[in-house]
Amino acid sequence: MPAIDELVTLLKQYNAAYRRGAPLVSDHEYDRLMAELISRDPANPFLQAVEPEIFESKVEVRHPVPMLSIEKAYTREELERFISRVKKEAAELGVNELVFQVTPKLDGLAGRDEDGVFVSRGNGEVGYEISSAFQKGVVPVGGRGLGIGEIVILKSYFDEYLADKFEHPRNMVVGIVASDTLNEFARQTLADGAVHFVPYGKLPSWKGRAEELLADMEGITAELAAQTDYPMDGMVAMVMDEAVRARMGATAHHYRWQIALKTKGETAETVVENIQWQVGRTGNVTPVMEVRPVALSGATIRRVTAHHAGRIRADRIGPGAAIEIIRSGEVIPKLEKVIQPSATVTVPTHCPACNMVLQWENDFLKCVNPICPAQIHQSLIHFFKTLGTADWFGVKTMAKLTAAGYDSLEKIYAMTAEDFVALGFGPVQSRNLYAALQTSLTKPVEDWRFLAAFGIPNLGKGDSRKLLAHFRLEDLPGIDAGRIQGIHGFGEITSSAVATGLDKLRDTLAHMLALGFNILRTPPADNSPGTGIFSGKSIVFTGKMQHGDREEMQAQARRLGAQVQTAVGGRTDYLVCGEKVGQTKLDKAQKLGVKILTEEEYFQMLQEH
């Protein structure tokens, strides 16, 4: 067990790295060390101040009101103790009816935007003037001057375009704010309007009594998380009564009238036995640690992700390394921390699949060989998974096909049942595989899903839909980057990458279209909203559907003129509900005057029209 001064030094190092956007340990590990310091030395000066966030090249500005941290709660008992403290203070004021609010806890860069000046949190008392963030392209949600909030990147955007280049969205956010010169990824993300300053007042929220909060904390969390497309690390609960807030006050570190609700994943210690390097569809070569089997969250864990090669190199992970792993609802457990580094650390210099020399891109290793067999294999898996209309073509089936030389869509779609038998598949499976190919030709598929299935870099489902609202599938190859950039949301770098990818896809796309897929076309963007029953209307589909597929229902609604939304808002006209819909969403819809339909009522409306 480290001495107190060693523990404080370690916490300062970890905090400084986190504030720079290059965290050395997870939030869970940092909070564990903080809890240890609190238990051993509760009066330590480090615990009495906000962990500082420093931007050395920026001008210091004093906050008119301190921006403090938030006390954390990981268990129901800790939440109950917080509520008991609030009730006690309220009772002494004669306040009996208390309302609590819960909002998502964003994991970004906190700041205050007031009077035309944007200031980072800093040490809570003094921050740094970072108004240039808006000049660079950060989008102020709801406009300027709305007070305290955080700079974050849209989670859906990060997952689709940046997750294979950066370990966490916060890394890029800090770089955007701190740097005068932006890298190409930051410039593109800003150009695409994906970096937002979100005032806390613009976040979705739940309000209710303490008993309701305690009874349904998990449901409240799930409902708010479903409405939030930003990185989060928990929820924040606070009492709303201003008199109670004033009475409870604050420490030098946090306000006593609010608390952060976080989930601590189950952890276990194990030893790395080997590291396998996997090649992805886009060429990223990523490490997977094979570990000594250990029980965790009801499963026996043998493989753990390490995310990227930079982590292997920096933390000296290799055979013999002692590590702690965590599993917080994820299917794949993650590396929490390195307890004892390895004496042998090996990072590959050549692609394990094609032997091409690897290149570094930030913390990631990349194979740039366009005919790398591993990339081809992963691309084919991606096609069938995204297309969604051909069963049976999973990882093992695809491995067998590519090993036998069926390494392109053209070859696979030309196969007969006899071809599958010849490769060693059983008669029944061979007929199923052939039938699945034929089904995928006849079953309706949206054009944007068809295009996204080809895995063109920087062109996911959302941008495919956007692109096909302006160009037909048949006309895409050969379109120059300038015409793509003319579409709102496509920046210079993305447009160039998409144009290059479409040109490379020219022959394959023509061949696949000639096979006669049953493609549903995206309505042109320059037409009126449509003449369907939902023309000019906005719809949200929520809950588990029993009589239809949600994505198919969304696509059908779009064809009937609807604007499909993901969360209920002031412009929502219909909320279509399946099973297990959160009460918060229903209450919000009723408050806003949104027409609520059951799944059966929705289909009845379609039938009547």
List keywords for this structure.
alpha+beta; 609 residues; D-amino Acid Aminotransferase, Chain A, domain 1; OB fold (Dihydrolipoamide Acetyltransferase, E2P); seven-stranded antiparallel beta sheet; 21% strand; single chain; 38% helix
Lay out the secondary structure.
Elements: H1 4-19, H2 27-40, E1 60-62, E2 72-73, H3 76-93, E3 100-106, E4 109-114, E5 117-120, E6 126-128, H4 132-136, E7 139-140, E8 147-153, H5 155-162, H6 169-178, H7 184-191, E9 195-199, E10 206-208, H8 210-215, H9 217-226, E11 232-239, H10 242-248, E12 258-261, E13 266-279, E14 284-296, E15 299-305, H11 309-315, E16 322-327, E17 334-340, E18 359-361, E19 364-366, H12 373-387, H13 395-403, H14 409-413, H15 417-422, H16 427-442, E20 445-446, H17 447-452, H18 461-468, H19 481-485, H20 492-504, H21 506-514, E21 519-520, E22 538-542, H22 550-559, E23 563-565, E24 574-577, H23 583-592, E25 595-598, H24 599-608
Parallel strand pairs: 2-12, 7-9, 20-21, 22-23, 22-24, 24-25
Antiparallel strand pairs: 1-6, 3-10, 3-11, 4-5, 4-8, 8-9, 11-12, 13-14, 13-16, 14-15, 14-19, 16-17, 18-19
Query: Uncertain spans, ≥5 residues at pLDDT below 50?
Result: none
The total tally of domains equals: 5
Determine the structural class based on helices, strands and strand pairing: alpha+beta
Shape: globular
In total, how many beta strands?
25
The CATH class label of the largest domain is Alpha Beta
Looking at the structure, the CATH topology of the largest domain is D-amino Acid Aminotransferase, Chain A, domain 1
